[in-house]
Amino acid sequence: MKTFAIGGVHPPENKFAEKQPIEWLPPSGTVAIPISQHLGVPAKPVVTKGDKVRVGQLIARGEAFISAHIHASVSGTVSKIDSITDTSGYRRQAILIDVDGDDWMESIDRDQTLISDCSLDAPEIVKKVHEMGIVGLGGATFPSHVKLNVPQGKKASYLIINGVECEPCLTADHRIMLERGEEMLVGITIQMRALGVEKAIIGIENNKPDAITHLTELARKYPGITVEPLKVKYPQGAEKQLIKALVDREVPSGKLPIEVGCVVHNVGTSLAVYEAVQKNKPLIERVVTVTGVSVKKPSNFMVRLGTPVSALIEAAGGMPEDTGKVINGGPMMGKALNDLGAPVTKGTSGILLFTQEETPRLPELNCVRCAKCLTVCPMGLEPYLLAVLADKRRLEECEEERIMDCMECGSCLYICPSGRPLLDQIRVGKNLVGKMIRERSS
Amino acid sequence: MRLLTVSGSPHLHTDQSVSKIMYGVVFSLIPAMLVSFYFFGLAAILVTLTAVVSCMAFEFVIQKYLIKGPLTIFDGSAIITGVLLAFNVPANLPLGLVVIGSAVAIGMGKMTFGGLGKNPFNPALVGRVFMMISFPVQMTTYPEPTAFSTRLTDVVTGPTPLTLVKDGVSRGVGISELMPQLPEYTQLMMGNMGGSVGEVSAIALILGGLYMLFRRIISWHIPVAFLGSAAIFAGIFWLVDPQVYVDPVFHLFTGGLMLGALYMATDYATSPMSRWGMIIFGVGCGLLTIIIRLFGAYPEGVAFSILIMNAFVPLINRAFKPKRFGEEVKNG
């Protein structure tokens, strides 16, 4: 069975919610929809206070090349446009809407029947995906229309669909593959047409045998799409590692996957593309896993964007007494929340309620030079060295040692027996080196 | 109001820690310890205990009264230094010398540089070589092994197999004539030969090494490169003239080679970080060991070769980086 070549760790999987069907969570109260839910330039609001909006209506326009439109996820009245604390922990602009009923735009086809025929050509598909505000739902939230537009002079040969879900605890993608498999496959054929590729490979780790069997069965009807089981290893869901595992190509340092003829999309994104193109539905909701060791009802919710995290926790049976940390995303790369009023955004894949004992930080000891961080780094870096160089602000050397290749997967800090804050220091270093590089080029 | 922790990712950590790893190493040393107690009796137990207790005591004194820093004597590393130091000296070494050796190992070898992880040379070997040079007679008077030995100091001493060969060859005696005086190879592997406390039983050391490999405390690179290069290099000379140069199997199972390759060269702080660096380091250790054994003044060269290679570790770390992802464009 395939996997990527260098590095990787095996954190405990703890996928408590994997058997829980996706549950629809009705909108209520007030939602706060940030204008920056994607990688790139924030969108510009096109509504003002007091405006009545319907579900699916455009409320903020992503005008830059790398940006995405934002649509109303609920119907109601815009109460204000103000800065709120979002899941990143920073104050960001958001459009607040008081929910009133659930009145959808007529243009959206809410019927559940599968539409597998698509007559649009590649540019029309890209345009549609752009209009509907689709971004990568795996967590990086890169605008999908940019990825579906193969740059001049490059050629895509594979569409790679990321069904790995290598983060512990998360089960949202797993449930999508099981419950929305057929729609997802149509979405994949649409993406294939946009890219002009003949082959699509769905990579799934073999801790989800039901999803592998189910999709392999369904994919028989879709020429060019294959399912590839992968050996479980974190961080296999990282773009570069997944490409390496599936087609044995290495994306060069600082380059995008298209450099080696690949485009990677998440399974959730393929479903969103299907809905956008075939049902005219903008990205207004997503699947979010809410789980934790003491959570009463670990769940996978279909949630309207903008819903506060606290409402999701309530729906999963409330916050357990022993909660010590609430994480937005997976336990390896997710962010600890500082405000439970923060809204669910396009990049929210899970809300994890961890006890203090589950998320220990060991007392910091001397580096014993055990070399475990080198062994687990999937990018072949030397985390112990980068951390020291970053801490000493020796930025040129950081750059030479390829600190910018670090994708912050956290494997080094996870494995370090001395409890050294390797990734914390490397992050600071990356920030400063990034600044240095920008200043040099300007 | 409930307080929630906010910290950077990752939010999970393995259940491994430095002290768990260190105690894992101590645990893996038990078979070799038992064999040495069997062959060298109470003397071996006393030497081991003295070394462990004095290593911990010196670390305590230095941390508490000189550095005035946090105490780490129970992290297991001082215990390992103690055990390994004891394993590297004859069982009948006067205990006072063991204490001096421990002081040098912990004081000069480890704490001078800032403690665990910061020392460039293997502390136990620093202690051993210091004693080797300061007390050459006591350090090269080895007791003969006896099954279920209960002796304390009634010394029946004899040469180690390596000394026998070195002396014989230097007097012009051929290897085939020396062979009858040497223990059989199966006896060598079991540890029934003259030597330092813990180095004699290859089988027990390999058992401990396999445990460390299984627990992923060490990787195979250094031991395999060390033993492999020693065997190949010794083998080449043996093929050239088997009367002057003893065969590679003999080299592998005598002296401190097994202990050195599995426990001394794999010391985290004093060995390279990358896989290729580890292999280069191991090959260097193996070559130097055989050069010293065959052409040097000493019959044994493991300790010196490891210390010499320790000095090269910073250079090796610079020269041998791990293979970066995406370094060579591969369009498989």
Question: Can you give a write-up of this model?
Answer:
The complex is a heterodimer of chains A (442) and B (332). Chain A is 28% helix and 20% strand. Chain A contains 13 helices and 17 strands. Chain A has helices at residues 122-131, 144-148, 172-179, 181-195, 209-219, 239-247, 267-279, 309-315, 372-376, 383-391, 395-400, 411-415, 422-441; strands spanning 22-24, 30-34, 44-45, 52-53, 58-61, 70-71, 76-85, 91-99, 158-162, 199-205, 225-230, 262-266, 285-291, 299-304, 323-328, 335-336, 350-355. Chain B is mainly α and 332 residues long. Chain B is built from 15 helices and two strands. Chain B has helices spanning 18-28, 30-67, 77-87, 95-110, 123-134, 136-139, 161-170, 175-178, 185-190, 202-214, 221-240, 248-253, 257-264, 275-295, 302-319; strands spanning 142-143, 157-158.
Tertiary shape of chain A: globular
Please give the count of helices of chain A: 13
Structural class of chain A: alpha/beta
The number of strands of chain A is: 17
Task: Trace the largest sheet of chain A across and list its strands.
Answer: 1-14-13-17-15-16
SS element count, helices of chain B: 15
C-alpha Rg of chain A (nearest Å) = 21 Å
Could you estimate the helical fraction of the residues of chain A in percent? 25-40%
- Name given to the CATH architecture of the domain at 122-279 in chain A: 3-Layer(aba) Sandwich
Distance between the termini of chain B: 56 Å
Look at the structure and give the CATH class of the domain at 122-279 in chain A: Alpha Beta
Low-confidence parts of chain A, pLDDT < 50 over ≥5 residues? none
Structural class label of chain B: mainly alpha
Fill in the CATH topology of the domain at 122-279 in chain A.
Answer: Rossmann fold
Write the layout of secondary structure elements.
The complex is a heterodimer of chains A (442) and B (332).
Chain A: E1 22-24, E2 30-34, E3 44-45, E4 52-53, E5 58-61, E6 70-71, E7 76-85, E8 91-99, H1 122-131, H2 144-148, E9 158-162, H3 172-179, H4 181-195, E10 199-205, H5 209-219, E11 225-230, H6 239-247, E12 262-266, H7 267-279, E13 285-291, E14 299-304, H8 309-315, E15 323-328, E16 335-336, E17 350-355, H9 372-376, H10 383-391, H11 395-400, H12 411-415, H13 422-441
Parallel strand pairs in A: 1-14, 9-10, 9-12, 10-11, 13-17
Antiparallel strand pairs in A: 2-8, 3-5, 4-7, 5-6, 7-8, 13-14, 15-16, 15-17
Helix pairs in contact in A: 1-4, 3-5, 4-7, 10-13
Chain B: H1 18-28, H2 30-67, H3 77-87, H4 95-110, H5 123-134, H6 136-139, E1 142-143, E2 157-158, H7 161-170, H8 175-178, H9 185-190, H10 202-214, H11 221-240, H12 248-253, H13 257-264, H14 275-295, H15 302-319
Antiparallel strand pairs in B: 1-2
